[in-house]
Amino acid sequence: MEIFSCGGEVSAFAGMRTEGKKMTISDDVKAYHSNVELYGLKFPADAKFPESIELTSQESRIPTEVYTSEARLALEFERLWSRVWQVVCRVEEVAEPGDFAEYTIGNQPFLIVRGEDGRLRAFQNACRHRGTLLKHGTGNAKELKCSFHAWCWSLKGELRDIPDRHLFPGVTDEEYALPEVACDTWGGFIFIHPQPEQAPPLREFLGRAAADLDVYHMERYRATMHARIPLECNWKVALEAFLEAYHVAATHPQITPYLDDVNTLHTTLGDHSRMIVPYGVPSMRLEHVEEAEIYEAYFSRSATSFRHSEAAKATGQSVTELPPELFDQDGEWIGDGTMRDYLIARARETGEKLGHDYSELTREQMVDDYDYHLFPNLKFNSHAGGALGFVSRPHPTDPNKCFFDIYTLVWPDENEEPPAPAPLIEIDITKQSMGAVLDQDFDNLWKVQKGLHNSTLEYVTIGSSEVRITHFHSVLNRFLQVPAQKL
Question: What's the pTM?
Fold first, then answer.
């Protein structure tokens, strides 16, 4: 991966334009990003600070009706969800021959099955006789038998048996095989495409994003938690809340001691996108932060703090107490370098003890949040040894509701047996906490959806620090075959 270092002149701004001309970088802007030089931050050469991104007025305004209109929701089911690769579940959920998992998008039910030959297949989940769902939820079966009249198919989708078959002279095995849809895996997730004849190879669809993420070995990760949460907002509202760091200072002030929302950079990757948030570095919005506060915030307030339990087990070192080799009795920093340097070294040490291969990760990837959006609805924060994954799906009939899945993904100890698949848990966030950071995010979402219905609000306004939202809508409009700002 090509890396550049920002020092002296802030080289990330090389592409900044005003009316087609390069802009002079003011001292104020340099000071705004002084953490780059102070901490020696390095980023991929194609990553851009918001100041170097110029949005047109059309790009920066998204009509509110795309979040509230029933006609728009119907169009999305017709032209997006029926024509795109989409995440359905984790590989470990369908690991053994006979394992199956149900997936529904809108009113279209699908069934993912592991065959006796070990191959994953995905079928339309409807009996070819009277339409009954063949399987519901998850489980294991030797065959796919309808509970209504006992029509039966093999795990390969072949018609196996019809009671009183002589009464159905027009039925042939070939015509009544279960319709198969495209199915493939990447990063430990199973994807399907409802129209296999139109589906590009999954790897081709993921493109550069998948290539960038290969170095994390996400296929080795396992979900230690899988929660499904019904939300009172459009699926795009839920997704977009996690595509930018602009909200961090206002919504999550408690985490700003350990991450620099100001020095967050953005890159578009074909239909997908990436955001890099420096960790182990305080926000430029804070005047002074002690190293002890960075340590405490990083290990106790992060939404991905679940990753640190494996670190504590591997190193035998508590993550809640200040290490004596780093801090004196008064909590003053006595370690070498910076807290960021320590976090990078600790991550490598932990990885070695857990048998993880971090050899392809840059120094920065050991600590920073490399945040990827894989179109249309998969988003996760990538870190060495773990990730937090989100999947946002529309409600089948109501544009003001959606279903939001959260996965905690951890690379388990390679010296031990992998953990059992995490069971799906249904969460009511009005009664159960998902941790302070996520609770704060979810509390915003219903308010956003309510406000979008205001009769005086024709569009939402997107700034360059939210460029991934603009990019998401440009790709979405292409699938929907509509011009920007139009239904």
Answer: 0.91
